[in-house]
Amino acid sequence: MRLAQILFSIFFWSFFVVTASAGFVVGASIHLLLDLVGIDRERRFMHWYINGWMFNYLRMNPWWKIEFVGRERLPKGGSVFVANHQSLADILISFGLATQYRFVSKAILFKTPLVGWSMKLCGYIPLVRGDSASARVMMDQCRYWIRKGIPVYIYPEGTFNKGDRLLPFRRGAFVLAIDEKVPVVPIAISGT
Description:
Layout: H1 2-36, H2 44-59, E1 80-83, H3 89-94, E2 102-106, H4 115-122, E3 125-127, H5 132-147, E4 152-154, H6 172-180, E5 184-187
Parallel strand pairs: 1-4, 1-5, 2-3, 2-4
């Protein structure tokens, strides 16, 4: 079993490197075309494209069981999604929510080739931790998306926690929801 997992992992990452590059070029080209003709200013297409594409990579692994409970209860329109954060896999798992949202993420990730470029094309929101000016800009960008009827997705712990206990929540997500008078939607992620 272990050898099969190693071989699959080698195949998977080789396949990912080749197809991710091509997939990004296709998605970016479609985005630029839509933007040029004035369609999809809210980057809905790019979010669907990137999310579907990345989530399908996860579904390829026969050793991973992915299950969503209550996905049909996600509200329509602006809201603040808050989730626990155990690992980097949480982000990929969240792509399976099958709804529009805009992530708040560490600003440094936006500089990563392919990943960061995709995040920019989707309209995701960068944040430099501990920088109050960056936090203000982040809150303004979150308000923009909420007012457009698109939820924002925030990990209120501020970073991922490898243990079973939650880290203390930062208050920004909750202040945002109160200020904008939108619901806070709790999301629990387990097993990543």
